[in-house]
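Summary: Need help interpreting a holo structure output

Steps to reproduce:
1. Submit the protein chain below together with the SMILES for zinc ion.
2. Request a joint structure prediction with the ligand placed.
3. Inspect the structure token block that comes back.

Expected: a single structure record containing both the chain and the bound molecule.
Actual: see attached output.

Input attached:
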Amino acid sequence: MAAMTQIRNIVILTGAGVSAESGIDTFRGGGGLWEQHRVEDVATPEAFARDPELVLRFYDMRREAIQTKQPNAAHFALARFDREWAGELLIVTQNVDDLHERAGARRVLHMHGEHLNAWCSNCDIRSPWRGPLIERPPCPACGARALRPDVVWFGEMPYRMDEIYGALRSADLFVSIGTSGAVYPAAGFVRDARELGTRTLELNLERSQGSAWFDESRLGPAGELVPAWVEEMLGS
Ligand SMILES: [Zn+2]
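--- attached output ---
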């Protein structure tokens, strides 16, 4: 196993546990319910085809809610790490909020999309979007009233997987922060990393379904574990 001093290229995966400390409820896992609907029944292409108003209302509420939340200590520590780490870094996030960016991180990839984008099913262009979609506003690019949330729904392929696997192949360290290990394909990254001989570290509130796959697991709140790990890595 490579010593920390030999580590240069890093892939960090962040999940719900990182945003939870900012008060963002994820609904995923644990049988999450929204107005008596299972979230798995709202966040799907089939639900959008069947009842678009319901799905748009759900995402309008989520989009509004995240704009009232603030980044926490874990986001700020990762932003500092992004600024100061001289090697390659990719922060792959399953989160659809913009808290990594608002904390100042730049090397962020949103594999499950972003609440603050709208995606046009007519022209395929994504536009920054902060307001509601329920009234079917026109697409800023083509004018069609065909905007949907730019969020990867259950049953849809996560974004930019080639880039993620490319980064994993050249990584010396894979760090998973605040994810349950329950959602594929992200849950498979640690196995891929291990097969490539990459060192693996998990920072999570509790032991996850995937914990056994990591070289090391540290348990506790992301707001404490992440700043401590960043200090350790930056040697200050
Ligand atoms: Zn369009």
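--- end attachment ---

Reviewer comment: The CA atoms of residues 119 and 136 lie 12 Å apart. The pocket of zinc ion is lined by residues 120, 122-123, 125, 139, 141-142, 144 (CB under 6 Å).
Status: needs-info
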